[in-house]
């Protein structure tokens, strides 16, 4: 049956000729279409103003939906409670992506977020790539499976979410270890957590989602996060360079790669420490 229909379609396209192909080229914005273009509704990206309380027992987190037109409601809906998989121990992890202009990078972030188990991705309405067909294709379909949100006022969104109990981690360069601390570097850990606006490092086994609902902020490809957003972070998180000496000036990772590594590490369940025996305590 499919073969018969395909043959009929082939005869129709033969009759239309180059005019048909030009129309297809225009409809697909000049991208490869192989003779088929599907018209679909826009990707649902509800506008929100804040992240609200989390329930581990119910495995849900809340959002406050911003005002929308009647047409936008038909696409985005008005859902204010979203489910996530707590596995009985963790709080949700939300990615906030700011200033990423490359649609391919944005799509790659969504793909990694879905694969690794990140619970949602938030982007601002300005100064960041849109969820276009390019981003959706780069996501390999993940952009249609992981919840996506947009915010009009990033600083306001982060401030309100913080007051609702969410803790904000900013992806940034690693602060130098305190010279006088006497602390030894832990080679096993490539991820370094520190207190924002400080050089104080957190323990290497720190697990954000085991302690609080977490927002991980990722910044622009070249310049990183804006100062106005960095100032709202409770903590910073960075990835150690794998080389002792950087000979060619490669001092950072692609933003989608960094988002993947940090998300993976943040979602790892802490290893329970064995209880100390009396002998170990005494000797």
UniProtKB/TrEMBL annotation:
GO BP annotation list: rRNA modification
InterPro entries in UniProt: Alpha/beta_knot_MTases (IPR029028), MRM1 (IPR047182), MRM1_MeTrfase_dom (IPR047261), SpoU_MeTrfase (IPR001537), tRNA_m1G_MTases_N (IPR029026)
Entry's Gene Ontology cellular component terms: mitochondrion
GO MF terms held by the record: RNA binding; rRNA (guanine) methyltransferase activity
Keywords of the record: Methyltransferase, rRNA processing, S-adenosyl-L-methionine, Transferase
Domain tRNA/rRNA methyltransferase SpoU type: 93-264
Transmembrane segments annotated in the record for this chain: none
Record-stated family: Belongs to the class IV-like SAM-binding methyltransferase superfamily. RNA methyltransferase TrmH family.
PANTHER family: RRNA METHYLTRANSFERASE 1, MITOCHONDRIAL
Official protein name in the record: tRNA/rRNA methyltransferase SpoU type domain-containing protein
Organism: Phaeosphaeria nodorum (strain SN15 / ATCC MYA-4574 / FGSC 10173)
